[in-house]
């Protein structure tokens, strides 16, 4: 395969929370994969920073273990791993005290790109930001990276934005929503804006409805305490599903440029209609298949937190008024699958006597797994017997169409971390965008809290609570099946 990686400048990347779960699972393995692709310049350094009393050697050992655990065997060989580890440093810092900061300043070299990854609890953002500047470690060219959850509601998101804005300007802040780093999510923009085919039809006159599904088979095991304060609405809809909705619904930006793209997404979020209580279905997985239910996983016997949610969402603008967007996401469902399905309207009149039900074109963009595009079209069923119509898929799997490049899809974090180093914010959320998403989500959550709604139990291995099916049935529509 020809390497098409774009070179980046040499960098010092400091990972606060360098010994934490995200660093081990995603950040370090992603950096290694970029190293393997030849994209990490020789002089660059990756500096773990955390509270633990660790020697540099011990941090390298931890990194080696993480690579062994989280990378497929084919992606790592001892020589390359050892060469990569030579880029690794470790500094012990106390985020809320004074220890370690001068040492950190000693490690950071002038003339490099400086990026600081805050892979820590949001309550520490302010402390770290303040110390980075007080100790002259960061300057006006440095970049900082923050993770979700970015706030718990509008007020806390605003407070976080304000804390960061005290020390850094918006062009320095990279808010990660890892869905935006997924190849197929970026592909949504390519499909829409690099083809003439879809855009003329991309509006309520031709699109009946849109379904966005992010289904997972896993439960909340191990993260029950966090999840129970969050739920599917905050954990998935306010960010990941919202971003998918924006990419489908936004107007064409004038250029693939950070603010041009984010301005258009923001307009979509601001045009979202309030969601009516009868257009929301919340569920909680029950015990089954030898696995505990949500109540046991969350260790909260009275929990009303949803592990599944389905919503009917309207967009009040000229392009979309009258086309519902149905969103659903949940844990412990039948399959791990994420997809967007665009259901076109039926032709206004059928010239065929025996027209069959389902004369509806559907464009399905499969985000994961089996990334690809599938378009359902009507054709004549071959053979005698008159004009019998049948719906068939025009199926394109990226793996089949693109060979290695279609199967060897980089992890979202690889793309996002390299974009930080390149200084490209297009795939990161702007502060106003996050706040607008909370401004939409807050009243929905407050509504069910005030009403005291309880989520419905659903059996694991299915498609969520029965009422989620009704949400579409009542509109004369049907969800696509949850399957891989
Ligand atoms: C995270 C959520 O942001 O996304 C998790 O906190 C969820 O609850 C995960 O499982 C899903 O991401 P992916 O990339 O596996 O679809």
Describe it.
The protein has 484 residues and is α/β, with parallel strands linked by helices. It folds into 2 domains: 11-147, NAD(P)-binding Rossmann-like Domain (Rossmann fold), CATH 3.40.50.720; 180-410 and 429-473, Dihydrodipicolinate Reductase, domain 2 (2-Layer Sandwich). The protein has helices at 21-36, 56-70, 78-85, 101-107, 125-134, 154-167, 183-193, 224-228, 231-249, 258-270, 294-298, 398-402, 404-407, 412-422, 431-451, 466-473; strands spanning 11-16, 45-50, 88-92, 113-118, 143-146, 173-175, 207-215, 280-285, 308-313, 325-330, 337-344, 362-368, 372-380, 389-397, 456-458. The protein is globular, with a radius of gyration of 24 Å. The model has no long low-confidence stretch (mean pLDDT 93). 6-O-phosphono-beta-D-glucopyranose binds next to loops.
